Amino acid sequence: MSALVLGHKNPDTDSIVAALSAANLYRSRGLDVAAAAQGEPAPETKFVLDHFGLKAPEVVHSVAGRDVYLVDYSDLGQAPDDFKEATLKGIIDHHKLGDVTSDAPLEAYIKPYGCANTVIYELSEYYKAAIPADLAGAMLCAILSDTVLFKSPTCTEADKKAAAALAKIAGVKDVNALGMDMFKAKSNLNASPRDLIFRDFKDFDMSGHKVGIGQLELISLDMITPELKASLQSELAKVKSEGRDSAILVLTDIMKEGSEVLTASDHEDLVLKALGASASSRWLDGVMSRKKQVVPPLEKAFRG
Ligand SMILES: [Mn+2]
To answer: What CA–CA distances, in Å, run from 57 to 15, 23, 54, 124, 185?
Structure first.
C-alpha cells in the first residue's frame, strides 16, 4: 500500500496543497505515496483546487498500519487518533516542533517559514523535482493564504522568493488579484456558527489545559453582523464545554491588519490579559498570526 502524505486535522489550504506538492516531490524520488487529507476542502481551498483544476486528496481518518509522511504539523493532537499505530516516515513543516516521535530513522525538514509549501518548493529545487504549472499555482495560493498576502509577521524572504518562482511556473501575472479572489472565497460566511468556528481550528495542550483556537480571516469584519457575532459567541461556549479549558475565536480583518478575539474560558482574565485584550476591548491591532501572535503568549500565560 502507498505511504500516505497527510496534512493536519481541520485542513487548511497549505495543509491540503502541501499533501499534493510533497507527494509530487516524493514521487519524483521514486517513493510510492498518495496525498491524503483529514477532511474535505474548506471554501478557500476549494476555490484554489477548482481554479487550478486539481483534485482534492483522498480523505483519511485512520492510519493504523500505514507508512505516513506528515506535512504542515508535527503535533500528535493534529494527527489521526490511531496515529501511534502508523509508521512515521517523514515530516515537512514550518511550525514549532511538536510531540510526534518515530520508532525508526526518518527524514524531517522543518524551517521557520510562513508556509509549508515554501519548504516544499525549496526541497523540490534541491531534489530537482519538476513542479507542474497547476500545482505551482496552488502552492503559490498556499503561500498567499498562510502569509495573508505576505502581510503576516510569519512571512519570510524565502516565502516571497518561492511565491515569485511559483507564480512564474504557474503563469500567474497578477499575484495580488489572485490572492484577493482567494480571500473573497474564504470570506464566505454561509455556514453554521459551528462550522465557521471549526473551519480553521486547532487544539493545543497548554500546561495541561486544552485550549482550542479557531481563526476566521475575512476581507472585512464588517461582514460579521451583531447577530452572527452573538451566535458565534454562544457556540463558542458550547465548544468550550466539550472538554476544553478555553475556546477562542480569532476574527482577522486582513485589510485592517488586526483581529478581534472572542473567548469562552475558565480563565477568561488570564486569556484576555495574555492577548492584550479586555472584556470591553477585544480588538488586537496588528495581530494576524495565530501561530506567532496568539499561541505563544497564551502558552506563556498558562505556564504561569
Ligand atoms: Mn501551514
So the answer is: 11, 10, 9, 20, 20
Find cell 472572542 and name the residue: 262
Residue range 3-184 forms a domain whose CATH class is alpha beta
14 Cα: distance to centroid of ligand 1 (angstroms): 5
Other Cβ atoms within 10 Å of 68 Cβ, number: 24
Q: How far is the CA of 295 from the centre of ligand 1 (A)?
A: 15
- The whole-number pLDDT of residue 304 equals 86
Superfamily, domain 193-303: DHHA2 domain (3.10.310.20)
Ligand 1 centre to CA of 76 (Å) is 16
Which residues lie closer than 8 Å to 85 by C-beta, 6 or more apart? 63, 64, 65
Report CA(290)–ligand 1 centroid distance (Å). 11
Considering the entire predicted model, what is its pTM?
A: 0.87
pLDDT digits (tens, 9 = 90+) for 6-36: 999 999 999 999 999 999 999 999 999 999 9
Domains 3-184 and 193-303 alike in fold: no
Question: In the chain, what are the domain boundaries?
Answer: 3-184, 193-303
Ligand 1 centre and the CA of 227: distance in Å? Answer: 31
How far is the centre of ligand 1, averaged over its atoms, from the C-alpha of 146 (Å)? 6
